């Protein structure tokens, strides 16, 4: 069975190009022996191809799909952080509504006519957006921390209420059938 072709990450290509520039003297075929010693299984032809396309590789951000909202996603993240700082609830529906609004406001009529893109802030999109930006809806919105004195005072207050509730329950008879 023939070996399957495996794509090489952009960071590895950049590392190889930087080595060719700095230590390889600008000769890409020298990189094969160096990187083979490091355990890389890439032919000299691969290094030559990367060297030939080095401008695109160094300028590129990879072949991943660009976010539909682009820079508007940063604005959406800021809106979420601001809402959390105000201790207001952030829901998936709210994120979807804000994303729709930002998408509509970020595109002009001409852009929409030339390249009509349908944007739906679906559940998978919201999940991916939250993962890309390290967000979680279960994260606490209270960013302040309690001092030790405040924490102890709240714990004591809680225990006083607990004990008071236990005393009230203990005064009630457990078996009410014998009182009739």
From TrEMBL:
<feature type="domain" description="HTH CENPB-type">
    <location>
        <begin position="60"/>
        <end position="139"/>
    </location>
</feature>
<dbReference type="Pfam" id="PF03221">
    <property type="entry name" value="HTH_Tnp_Tc5"/>
</dbReference>
<dbReference type="GO" id="GO:0003677">
    <property type="term" value="F:DNA binding"/>
</dbReference>
<protein>
    <recommendedName>
        <fullName>HTH CENPB-type domain-containing protein</fullName>
    </recommendedName>
</protein>
<keyword id="KW-0238">DNA-binding</keyword>
<dbReference type="InterPro" id="IPR006600">
    <property type="entry name" value="HTH_CenpB_DNA-bd_dom"/>
</dbReference>
């Amino acid at each position: 069975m023939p070996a399957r072709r495996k794509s090489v990450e952009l960071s590895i290509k950049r590392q190889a190009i930087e080595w060719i520039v700095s230590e390889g003297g600008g000769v890409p075929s020298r990189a094969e022996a160096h990187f083979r010693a490091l355990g890389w299984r890439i032919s000299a032809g691969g290094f030559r191809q990367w060297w030939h396309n080095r401008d695109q590789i160094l300028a590129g951000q990879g072949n991943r799909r660009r976010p539909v909202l682009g820079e508007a996603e940063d604005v959406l993240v800021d809106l979420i952080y601001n809402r959390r700082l105000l201790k207001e609830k952030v829901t998936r529906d709210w994120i979807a509504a804000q994303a729709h609004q930002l998408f509509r406001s970020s595109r002009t009529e001409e852009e929409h006519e030339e390249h009509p893109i349908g944007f739906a802030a679906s559940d998978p999109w919201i999940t991916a957006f939250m993962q890309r930006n390290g967000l979680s809806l279960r994260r606490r919105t209270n960013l302040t921390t309690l001092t030790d004195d405040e924490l102890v005072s709240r714990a004591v207050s809680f225990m006083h209420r607990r004990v008071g509730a236990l005393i009230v329950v203990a005064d009630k008879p457990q078996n009410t059938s014998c009182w009739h």
